[in-house]
């Protein structure tokens, strides 16, 4: 008889990425049919309730262990697996137990020093850790999302006054001193510097430059809100100054999701006074897409624009009239919406171009829609979808079964912090979706030739599942639009 076990471990903590692996390890234990080990955040409690578990009262600072077993006799082994997996998650990369890890950013910097501090904690705690780094005279990259904008502004004003750089919050990608941070792709050193108010936008630039044989000196993320009216481009200006002072940088490109127009104008004016040429790839209605801007940059560099690679073919649309885009990259979603809106009209989304087009919590609606599964509202208490694709895979099955769906548009983003093998999860889901209805699937696979996941291997796996794969997100979107409207390739 099926047995369920739920326990709360008060005050126990591990980050969401570690707990994702713990849950997977425990779920593989004989006799375990379902396992979820997570912090008891509001979102995780909702997920557990959706799995059928009943939870006692708990706070977001508590850990919950929820197990569904083939029988009660499997419980001791399952709990032992939980403890073993949690212990493994606490071990250092050497395999030795780290007995006294630093408890704060300040203590870590006192112990080891460093030119940059990377903060990855729940958003409510990021301010304190970032201030520790600034007080130590260190630049800081804030990977955390859900940080209040007022705190971001305060941190960036302090950093500017001290000659320091705050990268983030919600900064997922950077290349500093030749080292990739966060989700960054593996690139060769080169003569281009990137300032990015967009993580996946930065990765698209890195991927296209790599395909063209052009290296990157540095990529400085500044957080997706830096070019908003609330922040005013504070970190963007500092990053421009840093790259302008770097003799290895011959050209700079600034990439951003749609900025506040007045801030974009101010930053463009600021950049015009620098000694290094600056090209702006700022998404917006009527503006060039990122691929077009990279092609312009290549022309500036005197480099021939290559034919951007593609793999596979999705076949023709056989029914339905709606384009459904399911993204892990917010900027890739923005870019696809902007391109699609020019042809299809209004697009519903959880990050809509206009407020009246916002999706409700169910993320389903008639007509064209695009969803950013990496948006803050969908990542509270859980790992980013570039790490944990569960929510998107569930939604893929739903939109594939919807008779109104004509074409499905997806992205896959490779890089250091991303899934080790995203195609291993996505390809079977595409096969299953197309078994229900032969709906065409188009994928933008953003990565470089040296990424550990293997760009070609990922693309070929997805193509063998029935998808058409493009390196360029703009090209993938235009291909999906052609299929929806019945246009030629």
Describe the structure.
It is a single chain. It contains 16 helices and 19 strands. With 489 residues, it is an alpha/beta fold. The chain has 4 domains: 88 residues, Gyrase A, domain 2, CATH 3.30.1360; 68 residues, Rossmann fold (3-Layer(aba) Sandwich), CATH 3.40.50; 118 residues, Succinyl-CoA synthetase domains (Rossmann fold), CATH 3.40.50; 176 residues, Succinyl-CoA synthetase domains (Rossmann fold, 3-Layer(aba) Sandwich), CATH 3.40.50.261. Helix 14 packs parallel to helix 15. The longest helix has 16 residues.
Rg from alpha-carbon coordinates = 23 Å
**CATH class membership of the largest domain:** Alpha Beta
Within the CATH hierarchy, at the fold level, what is the topology of the largest domain? Rossmann fold
**Helix tally?**
16
